[in-house]
Amino acid sequence: MAGGWLNGVKQDFTKEEALKEYFYFLADDSLVLGQQLSKWCSNGPVLEQDIAIINTALDHIGRARLLYQELARLEGGDTTEDTLAYFRDHLQFRNALLVEQPNGHWGDSVVRSFFIDTFNFYLYDALRSCNNEALRGIAEKAIKEIAYQAQWSAEWVVRLGDGTEESHAKVQKSIDDLWMWSGELFEEHPIFEVLKDDLPAFSSFKDAWVKKVAEVLKMATLVMPSPELWMQTGGRYGIHSSQLGYILGEMQSLARTYPDATW
Amino acid sequence: MGTNVSLEDKFQAYVDAENKVEPKDWMPEKYRKTLIRQISQHAHSEIIGMQPEANWITRAPSLRAKLILLAKVQDEAGHGLYLYSAAETLGEPREKMIADLQSGKAKYSSIFNYPTPSWADMGTIGWLVDGAAIQNQVMLTRTSYGPYARAMVKICKEESFHQRQGYEVVMKLAQGTPEQKAMAQESLNRWWWPSLMMFGPSDDNSPNSEQSMKWKIKRKSNDTLRQEFVDKTVPQAEYLGLTIPDPDLKWNEERGHYDFGEINWAEFYDVIKGNGPCNKERIAHHVKAHEEGAWVREAANAYAKKQAARKEGDASAA
């Protein structure tokens, strides 16, 4: 890692720090994706799908709140779910780079969701029996929503892939373009070693994810790129793409203009 | 012709006896047309009304506020869906209603042709705009057309909830920092009069009202509903410590109602004609989303057809 893009990032974590990082990974993924999906509101291809995607955004923001509430407890002091969402800057965000990629067209958003939803499905399913009580509770509630989300996005990938010639070409390009952001979901990170007795490492879900994605893409008559291709990294260390600054700038603008206000 | 008259008389007697008209019942063509116009206009209002609020979802200042706003806009999309379905029971396909909206042939509530530059507008819209809508919709739960009345029962429950949430947003501002209080007052200044305009022209100038009242589509006149709304809302503003921007507003002991100033009818008619600040923007937004979604809808249809053909193939092979 030294000598490259991630030169200088933090590598040593105490158990307490590592646990918080784990929560930030999950919470920031949910918040940033929820924020992105909410932009589809009033812009969907058909009213029923506007409703479906708003619903998904709601689930993500709701889950982010539960995770931030637990984080606020772990951080202590004056920290609240809102100080975590609105008063941290990009260097402190730990979301995967995938979720901050632009919405693009319907196919781009669907593929982005499909990659992360499939990952979330295996992750949260495992968290239901992890050694952290708060996470077990959150996962138990979230797994139903995630199962729905994973099905929704997979169905759309199939519909677009096996729809018209145009939709097939478009969604294939979405897959090819977004693929390089998918590997980060499973990458190794120093916290997983520290937490190995209590919480699952994300790399443990890679095989299941690859298998599921291959299955869905086959049904969709789409070509799956190799999981061994070069993958982007950085989000879990606070090194982001340029997109995140805009997302946070928009999201945090009002809260930061009136930092003393309560809403 | 003679039969027609008697059918119409029978219909009127049926409605007068407080019976609900159902989709398969005979109804005068003008009754059907009036309802299609009104229900589709109502549906379009829900759908176009998503835009001024969606405008603040990404910037809502707390996660709780973001969640509430998202849920509200989702409810509105749901209301639009029921209402399109209710209008479809009268034989009007949804595609045609959407096309009429986009061409400008069909209208939606003019209130949504105003912009939402302030977060406070998310509270004010819930409080005043949803409040005004409820005034009208509670009446419509007793409207003579069954599917419309039933859709209204469900919609009213959710709208009352939205109104309380809107009022809560305004209350937090009104009880907040001086900047927040100013935000709430400024927003009330802008939305008060357009909210009163939501009830439509005064009774003397409302051409469709009489027949609608006779058919019990409508049960209270525009001016009656407007007065009810003013009477209900003034004490709410007082409780918040906000000032309603009408120097002529005062309690009239004799009438048992508030007197209020004259609405700027020139503005009302101009905004309806298309000259509001956001008329063009709202339709352009709708058209853009619709056009950008065309390939997605085509793909979904093509896939559904393929699936159906595959099933048929399986069935004949078996």
What labels would you give this structure?
heterodimer, A: 263 residues, mainly alpha, 10 helices, 62% helix, B: 318 residues, two-stranded antiparallel ribbon, globular
What would you note in describing this structure?
The complex is a heterodimer of chains A (263) and B (318). Chain A is 62% helix and 0% strand. Chain A is an all-alpha fold and 263 residues long. In chain A, helix 5 crosses helix 7 and helix 5 (106-127) runs antiparallel to helix 9. Chain A is globular, with a radius of gyration of 18 Å. The termini of chain A are far apart. Chain B is mostly helical. Chain B contains 13 helices and two strands, in the order H-H-H-H-H-H-H-H-H-H-E-E-H-H-H. In chain B, strands 1-2 form a two-stranded antiparallel sheet. The radius of gyration of chain B is 22 Å and the shape is globular. Chains A and B meet through helix 1, helix 2, helix 3, helix 6 and helix 7 of A and helix 3, helix 4, helix 12 and helix 13 of B.
Question: How do the strands and helices of this protein lay out in sequence?
Answer:
The complex is a heterodimer of chains A (263) and B (318).
Chain A: H1 15-38, H2 47-75, H3 81-86, H4 97-100, H5 106-127, H6 133-161, H7 165-178, H8 190-194, H9 206-219, H10 243-257
Chain B: H1 2-16, H2 29-48, H3 50-57, H4 63-88, H5 94-103, H6 120-140, H7 146-174, H8 178-197, H9 209-214, H10 222-240, E1 250-252, E2 257-259, H11 265-275, H12 279-292, H13 294-317
Antiparallel strand pairs in B: 1-2
Helix pairs in contact in B: 2-4, 3-4, 4-7, 6-7, 6-8, 6-10, 7-8
